């Protein structure tokens, strides 16, 4: 058999396997039992509700949010499996949960690579260098308000909103330590900007990423949300601008040198993003496969840094304290290690996400999401439902909300899918507890930014929320 025949045979086999898997999944859900009125269904809803209550009380109980959610996921699927086993349909439940695990696996691999690059850039002092540059500019409070908000908006389009917000908050606190009002208002602005920036790019937010990986919207189509996202950020920022003092903070002199390879890692990250987009759009391969290919760029470059390593003196001033830092650094502390960055990931969040995917997948398999979809998108209509999703995401984490919508998979136009992507992404800005960025800054700002500080500006943020929705309908009318 020649090479061409082998290639054609392999392609036909792959296509056949894909068609077989699709048919099996469709058949599985056609055989699914509606347990929404069964006692097992009520039990599973109760387990999910109790688990989510523990998540909400995480700070009070000091119990990591992944633990109750993973336990609930296991118990829900055990209950489902027992019912299906008694009905002689064990294979139906098995196929359903494998589908959910596959969805999670793709997102996990994608996020692992993205977070590894962010951690690598942090270790190479890319963010410290940016922070020091901002502190040294000698800008007025109002200029810093706009610079930090603008950078939060654009950086969060490729980085997660929590990391971006914390970086900008560090700058705000460094220059505004004697002006709590500036710190509080700037933190509100940073949260809004970071959430808005993550809405128009698939790499900016997990909810946007999920929609892209499902193949519902093409990569470049998301950028049609750029103007609505800008409007969402600019309206509240323009109003909050007048609450910022016109004065200039005391000058701060800070110097931070990036470590060897920092700029090249930034370039490799951009190349990894391009690889993932090419895999998804041109080759019809999962974006996660492209991201894993991009991880090898970092691994190979890490090997280069390792074999050419030399001890480097760490000289300069700490950007926050202004104290001089000098002396030869320990070799192990500077030697680049990719697996060290993988170990530093926020595994609690990733495992919480696993629990959410399986819990929501269980609710879908039980039949609840079909009924919910009928009410939201049947009785209310797509537009009111999608606007309501944003309001809900201010109270409930947008990840389970978006995953539930994807599980429902209502029949909607491309414009409506973009709308729900926008509202789920920026709706968390309505309250400080509505997004990871807001929660993180409440801990970082040490009383200058609180729930009530953010709530004071909620009406202004709501103007931006509805302004962004209006801009979307105006700019993208042909997609509805």
UniProtKB/TrEMBL annotation:
- Membrane spanning segments where? 36-57, 69-84, 104-122, 143-176, 219-244, 265-281, 287-305, 349-367, 387-406, 418-445, 457-475
One GO CC term of this entry? Answer: membrane
UniProtKB keywords = Antiport, Ion transport, Membrane, Signal, Sodium, Sodium transport, Transmembrane, Transmembrane helix, Transport
One Pfam annotation, family name? CitMHS
- UniProt xrefs under InterPro entries: Cit_transptr-like_dom, NhaD-like
Question: One MF term from GO for this chain?
Answer: antiporter activity
Q: Could you tell me the Gene Ontology terms of the biological process aspect for this record? A: sodium ion transport
From the Swiss-Prot or TrEMBL record, give the protein name: Sodium:proton antiporter
This chain's source organism reads: Methylomonas koyamae
